[in-house]
Write a structure and sequence with these properties.
2 domains, mainly alpha, globular, 3% strand
Length: 275
């Protein structure tokens, strides 16, 4: 078996094993889903640190732990999650700068401190949004919504780009992406929402389907491109090796990390105006 076929088999097997587990934990809700999101956040932050800092310092491990704690906050106290997240973020900010002030190396201290904060935010914000969505009324459906607009976009963009792609989207960052794939992905996000509405979640309104589908069609590819930009800047192919055949966690949920906060903002602040 050649390397390409071997990698394809690994991708399929990993998906068949992991996807049911992930969906089961999300469906269970409560501590089960919160723990899943916490592990994913910590893994994303760890991968970001490994890419940018190469080695995990004690300060990096603190950042990983705090990132993993953030998605647990909605489960602990949904009403004050923003306040608790602020104090954890402020505490980490103070800690990483003080750590490098004392431990150095001083010429690299500002850049290392900035990466420690950015890696924490990269991993924590999107997963906290998913966790906060899950504990809401009809929360499971809104988490599925975030997944649908992400997966629908990825799938439709792949096929549209492969069979119709002619015009490159952003060749300096991702040579294979095309404008045809971009717009095909947006159709996939909107279409996926209408399918979810018809088959499972009738409380989704047509406005929900269109607005969130378009949001997913824009924010998802931006998240994908940003992760590609990060990897290209540091000369790495995959963000990690945690998922055989797929790379790291960041490689799999880069678009979701951008989509989920926008879905939360829509549900929390916008949906009431449109219904």
């Amino acid at each position: 078996m050649n390397e390409k076929n071997k990698n394809l088999v690994l991708r399929v097997v990993s998906a068949l094993v992991l996807l049911p587990v992930v969906l089961f934990l999300i469906a269970k809700g409560g501590a089960w889903s919160a723990a899943l999101f916490a592990v994913a956040a910590a893994a994303c932050t760890s991968e970001y640190y490994t890419i940018t800092l190469k080695q995990l310092s004690p300060a990096a491990w603190v950042g990983i732990l705090v990132s993993g704690a953030i998605p647990l906050l909605p489960l602990h106290n949904a009403e004050h999650v923003g306040e608790m997240a602020f104090w954890l973020t402020a505490g980490l900010f103070f800690f990483v700068w003080t750590y490098h002030l004392i431990r150095g190396p001083l010429p690299e201290a500002p850049l290392r401190s900035a990466h420690l904060m950015m890696g924490y935010l990269y991993g924590a914000v999107g997963l906290m949004a998913v966790s906060a969505l899950r504990i809401r009324d009809e929360g499971l459906s809104w988490v599925i919504c975030a997944l649908v607009i992400t997966w629908g976009n990825d799938t439709a963009a792949y096929f549209a780009g492969r069979f119709l792609g002619r015009h490159k989207l952003y060749v300096e960052v991702s040579p294979n992406k095309t404008w045809e794939g971009f717009f095909g992905g947006m159709v996939g996000s909107v279409g996926g929402m209408f399918i979810a509405r018809a088959g499972f979640f009738p409380h989704f309104t047509p406005a929900d389907c269109v607005v969130l589908g378009v949001v997913g069609g824009i924010a998802g590819p931006i998240g994908d491109l940003c992760e590609s930009m990060l990897k290209r800047a540091y000369g790495v192919k995959d963000s990690g090796k945690l998922i055989p055949g797929h790379g790291g966690i960041l490689d799999r949920i880069d678009a979701l990390l951008f989509n989920a906060p926008l879905v939360f903002i829509y549900v929390q602040f916008v949906r009431g105006w449109l219904t």
